[in-house]
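PROTEIN DESIGN WORKSHEET
SECTION A - STRUCTURE
LENGTH: 300
TOKENS:
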């Protein structure tokens, strides 16, 4: 068990915290690219306790800036997206995607004040329909080309799961827990008559973990009528799970919204039966899973 101090050290994710400093050194998905359209080019996001605005400018580039304007604190979410940046709706200060202040209307023509103003901004890259942001120190690392993001021999789908009311480590730790699948998944599905539970509802004879190049790998030895040694894909350090599920290859990101809330993005890739290349759309389809309360309400 972690001590209270150890737990807070890794689960507090705001600026200046040890856990937040660690996670900021990795690219994190922050938005769905197809949600930013010419009609609605901006979106509020909160990541690791920071209130941000992600936007698509009129040239098709992406930016991610702190929501409050450094001038008077007005929300840039209400600003004007232009060819090369976003303009504050209050006094018209304009910032580019690097946080540079490009214009300050009503200042003297020879003023250099704008050159001394910087808005907090983070690099953004689009890959496979997801927008990723890097919030850590320079140099900016390469955005990893995980297999399900770049393969072309199948069909990709993005899934956005309901926000979890727990910290990111609780979601990730649950993935490392091999035996919870027997009751939480298998037994529950079997008692409710749901299909698919038989995969998990098998006697577990042994299980374990080992470190690998990317994080932690798991294995589980099933007994009973369908014995099997299952080598499970790794938990990729620090907050990714790589897993096969129902004939698909999947990656989950557990992204902290704040210290007690987590959002999950999943990229699923279903290989084509013959291994042939499939024409890839610029933006894969997106599935939004309803919250458990919404599912319950829809069935009552």
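SECTION B - SEQUENCE
RESIDUE ASSIGNMENT:
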């Amino acid at each position: 068990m972690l001590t209270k101090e150890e737990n807070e050290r890794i689960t507090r994710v705001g600026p200046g915290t040890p856990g937040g400093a660690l996670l900021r050194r990795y690219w994190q998905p922050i938005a769905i690219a197809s949600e930013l359209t010419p009609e609605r080019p901006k979106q509020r996001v909160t990541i690791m306790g920071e209130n941000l605005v992600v936007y698509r400018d009129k040239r098709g580039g992406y930016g991610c800036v702190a929501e409050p304007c450094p001038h008077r604190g007005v929300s840039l979410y209400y600003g004007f997206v232009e060819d090369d940046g976003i303009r504050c709706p209050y006094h018209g200060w304009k910032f580019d995607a690097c946080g540079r202040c490009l214009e300050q209307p009503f200042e003297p023509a020879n003023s250099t004040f704008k050159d001394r103003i910087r808005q907090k901004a983070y690099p953004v890259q689009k890959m496979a329909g997801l927008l990723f942001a890097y919030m850590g120190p320079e140099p900016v690392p390469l955005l990893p080309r995980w297999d399900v993001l770049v393969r072309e021999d199948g069909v990709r789908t993005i899934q956005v799961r309901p926000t979890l009311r727990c910290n990111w480590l609780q979601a990730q730790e649950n993935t490392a827990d091999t035996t919870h699948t027997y009751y939480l998944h298998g037994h529950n599905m079997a008692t409710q008559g749901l299909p698919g539970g038989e995969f998990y509802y098998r006697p577990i004879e042994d299980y374990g973990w080992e470190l690998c190049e990317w994080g932690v790998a798991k294995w589980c030895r099933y007994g009973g009528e369908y014995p099997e040694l299952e080598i499970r894909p790794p938990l990729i350090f620090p907050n990714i799970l790589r897993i096969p599920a129902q004939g698909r290859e999947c990656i989950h990101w557990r992204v902290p919204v704040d210290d007690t809330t987590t959002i999950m993005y999943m990229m699923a890739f279903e290989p084509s039966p013959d291994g042939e290349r499939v024409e890839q759309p610029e933006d894969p389809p997106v599935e939004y899973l309803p919250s458990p309360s919404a599912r319950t309400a829809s069935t009552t």
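SECTION C - NOTES
Residues 180-191 form the longest helix (12 residues).
The radius of gyration is 22 Å.
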